[in-house]
Amino acid sequence: MATVRNPTAAERPASPTSRPPDPSPVDLSVLAELTGDPVGTPGDFVDSLLATWTGETTRQLQELEDAFRAGDTARAGRLVHTMKGAGATVGARAVTDACVRLETALRDGTADWATAGPELRTAVTDAGSAFAPLRTHRPTPTGATR
Domain range spanning residue 91? Predict the structure, then answer.
């Protein structure tokens, strides 16, 4: 009689849920779907959208730190939720993921700005760096006006 052996973990194929996370802080396909342009296509709308996202996210990050220092967890929760949604809208997955973790910690009463702050700042910086190549205006065609 043949012996049936179960494969070891190393021999089993990876399941879709056990794939390593994508190391990119942004998902450009989200931005492409939002704008209707091919992935990586810079333009005025993309530039304006990302400039607004960067400015608002930077402002909200400072407000979030202020809320933590004041012990205002309700305000912190609103800001994190807003940042999470805005990050998801433009495909800033690292920001969205960091916000989800912070939102959960705020709900659980375990939020710590000393840990969450640097993680969120890094996520915002990394997303901004990944978006930077898209923040270049296309040349204006001859005869066109802006």
Answer: 24-131
- From the list 71, 127, 130, the residue with the least C-alpha distance to 99 is 127
The Cα–Cα gap between 137 and 135 comes to 7
Q: Which residues contact 68 (CB under 8 A, 6 or more apart)?
A: 76, 111, 113, 117
Q: Number of structural domains, the chain?
A: 1
R_g of the chain, CA atoms, integer Å: 20
What span, in angstroms and rounded, lies between the C-alpha atoms of 39 and 64? 31
pTM of the predicted structure, to 2 decimals: 0.74
- CATH assignment at residue 111: 1.20.120.160
Contacts of 45 (CB under 8 A, 6+ apart): 35, 37
Q: How far apart are the two ends of the chain, measured CA to CA in Å?
A: 80
Is residue 85 assigned to a domain? yes
In tens, the pLDDT along 16-63 reads 344 445 578 998 888 888 877 776 566 778 888 899 999 999 999 999
